[in-house]
Design brief:
alpha/beta; Rossmann fold; 6-stranded mixed sheet; 29% helix; 25% strand; globular; binds adenosine-5'-triphosphate; nucleotide-binding; ATP-binding; ATP binding; transport; Heme ABC exporter ATP-binding protein CcmA
Length: 221
């Protein structure tokens, strides 16, 4: 008998996923997989449903049809909480806490990767010296960098990144790409929405184009 090694399930498997508002379809039905070590670039025009898709995957909106399976398990709330880190348009940060207090608070909620401390993340995202700055005194780009620090600290393997490049300077854009590369190298996966042409990180990437009459997903390197 040949020795056939069992193959790992995709980190994310989506089948027949559809979402409608007021009976008007926003997207779907969609079928796609994302493997560990892979990025999925979600593209489409304004209003095509990119943010909605990420919010459905994160469990913030309920799908009308379809299944979401994470690492071989149905995506129940407790699994999503462990497995998914969602970076949305609005940073989930508290205006009257300092930058460091925000990270400590979020690590308390979501846990943190082994060996990583909130203090260390400031240097990684280029916010060194801002630990004690109140969140409301940070610029939009600095807030985005703080959200990236939270993402960096989170232990979740599946990153859902909605416009992660927005408000960032060129160095910040490179930072996102380096973070995604390192995360994928560590066996994670990332879904990214973006309008930026520069924004495909140099990693194994699939494309998902929403809002067009064509197959929903196509593989790409
Ligand atoms: N809270 C809401 N209530 C009602 N309709 C909404 C709401 N949010 C989004 N929509 C509608 O759902 C559709 C998809 O919006 P979504 O934000 O997912 O698009 P998107 O592809 O992310 O767009 P963009 O590129 O502009 O960010 C749009 O037609 C939008 O008008």
């Amino acid at each position: 008998m040949p020795d056939i090694a069992p193959t790992a399930p995709p980190l994310l498997a989506v089948r027949g996923l559809a979402f409608a508002r007021n009976e008007q379809p926003v997207f779907g039905p969609l079928d796609f997989d994302v493997d560990a070590g892979e990025a999925l670039l979600v593209q489409g025009d304004n209003g095509a449903g990119k943010t909605t898709l990420l919010r459905v995957l994160a469990g913030l909106l309920r799908a009308d049809a379809g299944t979401i399976v994470i690492d071989g398990q149905p995506a129940r709330a407790s699994l999503r909480a462990r497995a998914i880190s969602y970076l949305g348009h609005l940073p989930a940060l508290k205006a009257d806490l300092t930058a460091l207090e925000n990270l400590q608070f979020l690590c308390g909620l979501h846990g943190r990767r082994r060996g990583q401390r909130p203090d260390d993340a400031f240097g990684i995202v280029g916010l060194g010296g801002h630990q004690d700055t109140l969140l409301r005194q940070l610029s939009a780009g600095q807030k985005k960098r703080l959200s990236l620090a939270r993402l960096w600290l989170a232990p979740a393997p599946l990153w859902l990144l909605d416009e992660p490049y927005a408000n960032l300077d060129l160095e910040g854009i490179n930072l996102v790409n380096r973070m995604v590369q390192a995360h994928l190298r560590d066996g994670g996966a990332a879904l990214l929405t973006t309008h930026g042409a520069y924004a495909a990180p140099p990693v194994r990437t699939r494309m998902l184009v929403l809002g067009r009459a064509q197959p929903a997903s196509a593989g790409a390197e």
